[in-house]
Amino acid sequence: MAKTPAKPKAGQPAQDPQAAPRTEIGSIGEFPLIDRLTADLPIHNADYTCKGVGDDAAVLQLPKGEKLLVSKDLLCEGVHFDMTYCPLRHLGYKAVAVNLSDIAAMNGTPRQVLVGIAASNRYSVEALEELYTGIRLACDRYHVDLVGGDTTSSAAGLFISVTVLGSAKPEDICYREGAKEHDLICVSGDLGGAYAGLLLLEREKRTFLSNPNAQPDFQDFSYVLERQLKPEPRTDIVKLLAEKGVKPTSMIDISDGLSSELLHLCERSHCGCMVYDNKIPIDAETCKALDIFDIVPTTAALNGGEDYELLFTIGQKDYEKLKDCPEIHIIGHIVEAAQGCYMVPENGPMMRLEAQGFDGFKQR
Ligand code: ADP
Ligand code: MG
What we know:
Blueprint: H1 25-28, H2 30-38, E1 49-51, E2 59-60, E3 67-76, H3 88-104, E4 109-119, H4 125-141, E5 145-153, E6 158-168, E7 184-188, H5 193-210, H6 222-229, H7 235-244, E8 250-254, H8 258-269, E9 271-276, H9 284-292, H10 297-303, E10 309-314, H11 319-322, E11 328-336, E12 341-344, E13 351-352
Parallel strand pairs: 4-5, 9-12
Antiparallel strand pairs: 1-2, 3-6, 4-6, 7-10, 7-11, 8-10, 9-11, 12-13
Helix pairs in contact: 2-4, 3-4, 5-6, 5-9
This protein binds adenosine-5'-diphosphate and magnesium ion.
């Protein structure tokens, strides 16, 4: 197995792609670059991966009785990430992590990824190696095989497209549809942290642009910065649910904010929901960071996005099995469609849920 590189630390200044040493991609060419990026890749899933990188196509197999799950995400510089504060190593890690999250959201296990890269001449060989350190770290940590990809140049900026392949027994797969009236609504972990981290990073970027000598002020905010820069897919929750003998009636991962995902789930399941403000899990550090920007924590949890936690519904019969799991929080219940989708605050009137999360096509 490959030596696992040191875990990247959040909050460190992004590396300058211009910084030495710098080998131009054009000076070594495409094939030596691919060789450098893909040297000594381990295979973690020999039952699923027969042949990885190195031929015209990877050769994969599925054990009898399992279905194949496939998903893809495309990340574009300036739209999904900002090189001023996103270290390449974290970016590589995140590009894989968000894909693994999609497989977890189907209640499946990720097995392989393919990585497509298009980079402008602003990026050196060393910069792409840094990106791949993060990609490999995520693959090693989550026992996923990097089995192929494509590498090309772009006229401007960096593009990273990751395809993930996963597997699940057909009877275990969870869809967005399937939530039924009276089901309990659950979320894993805590919410709003990634958005709090983004606000801090954007603030530091503004400070840096007005005074390049300014030192970043990230004291005591390592958790929310990690939430933004280095999210972890909740494959552990998929395992936990299996151990507890619980199959969610519906599931989705929270990439665009709780509000938007609840609406997706309810729309696909033809139902409504009632969630309770005081049940939404939010970390103390998230609250502290949001306070600087005068943002109500619930607003960040509902509309912030990029938390990559799992949102799922369970039948009431399963309540006892999950009620003592510290990483799972019951935040409300499913109602009939005619009742709509609402958040119930501790005081004051019910609030209709609206999708205000991240939308790649929205005018900014
Ligand atoms: P082709 O010309 O058939 O597209 P390539 O020369 O692009 O093949 O790729 C050679 C091998 O390297 C293939 O196995 C391919 O999947 C793999 N590969 C190419 N680029 C990447 C990348 N960025 N990450 C991982 N594997 C890659
Ligand atoms: Mg190719």
